[in-house]
Amino acid sequence: MISLSSSSPSPLSLLKSCKTIRTLEQIHAQIIRKGSEQDHVLISEFISICNSLYPNKITYAGTVFDRVLQPNIYLWNTLIKGYSTYSSFATCFGFFRRMKQSCVCADKYTFPSIIKACSSVVALKEGRVVHGLIVKCGLEDDVFVGSSLVDFYGKCGQVFNARKVFDEMFVRNEVTWTSMIVGYSSTGDYLEAKKLFDEMPERNVASWNAMINGFVKSGDLVGAKLLFDEMPEKNMVSFGTMIDGYAKSGNMASAHALFDQSPEKDIVSWSAMISGYAQNGQPKEAVKMFNDMLSRNVKPDEYVMVSLMSACSQTGDWELAKWVDSYLSESSIDLGQHHVTAALVDMHAKCGNLDRAAAFFDKMPTRDLVSYCSMIQGLSVHGHAVQAIALFRKMLAEGLTPDDAAFTIILSACSHVDLVDEGCHFFEIMVNEYSIAPSTDHYACKVSLLGRAGRLREAYDILKEMPMEPHAGAWGGLLWACRIHGDVALGKEVADRLIKIEPQNPANYVLLSDIYAASNQWSDVHHVRNLMSEKGIRKLCGRSWI
DNA sequence: TTAGGGTTAG
Q: Which residue ranges contain the repeat PPR (predicted)?
């Protein structure tokens, strides 16, 4: 227990060396016991430490503040800064109002924080009111106040007003210039951003990073890398920005090289790598990276977990899905966030854990097309196509507009359970009600649907008449139907076509040979097998076009 | 008078 007796260190120095919330609570108890709750300097330091150690526990500082009878401007400012970044805007703005009501005048230290709070939620209306107050107080010439306004207008998409404030400032520093560059960059005006960057008298690492990010966002990774190499000092943000830029453009080799080079690897850099691998169809690499991250004691956050779930969906790793689920429920990650729940639904649906997927799906306050499709596809591929179709109908009834991917999923569901009429109906409404031009995949689904129902000629006609070249999968669906229904003549025709497209795929030969075998045409079977060995094609165990 | 402010990456 910490003692605040006269021989002990002063409460202020105790606060300054405080590292944990437990110690902070002990100091708080001592402050109360010593009757120091009205000591402005002490309470101001307390709020400041609380904010820097545990920004998400700023309400604790708020309760300590509320015990102060007549808080001075220092206390108000410290509190408002604490709330400006991490808490709800309404609470922060509420404190600002209370401060004015208690007849404490906002000063040049108050405005940057309250403007920052406005920027963080794009509260344009409130920010304009505060700007008016700033002018009224004659504080617009302060470089901190002015910079916060430039940043505010830029973040609210009002780059013209940002520039107006910028141009009217007498003194500007790196922060002012950087805020302006970010403003241009966020509206896509990269040329103007670069012009300012070249003009600015002095730059700091944030200025360089902002410009590199501008290049990355404009898609110019070469330009970004040139700046990155040129900058005098790099920090984690510099590396993180470049790594993410490479990862998003699919260049995982460059991303990985830079990741290996970066002296410190924080959660954003790990996240960029994991997400990059997951998005570029290398889910196993993503999982490997995640395990590597855990082994270095980096705590995953929601971004990382969402990427990991995407990787898990792709591999269908049921065990990993269960681990992720239990990890998330024990973590402090907010499961109420839509993208986290959507990822959970998708992961469980793809891994075949349908009850769990449905539990999350049902809990969602609003269900969008993506989550509906995750659920519908999960049901369809795991043997519940009828429920999948019912859910698709429910989705339509809710007024959601399906896209081409949604129709691929539902057509495929219909073909799984031979619901030919339903499938044809969905194909028809896709074209006529939703004005979606059928893709090769849509045609392939319809071919498979008709083919499996024995309507082989109709299916064949679709393949011949569709406006684009059918892919091998579409022909494969029909060949499979010929095998089921024993249509030797059509089977041969289709196999000939398929073999032209995919001469090295053993499945095409095997299926044709099976068709001959089923009708006892053994010399043809023999012929196909000879053809295979002439071409050096070996029969594989388990065959599929999917 | 011992304390308080604005910029950069997923």
A: 173-207, 235-265, 266-300, 368-402
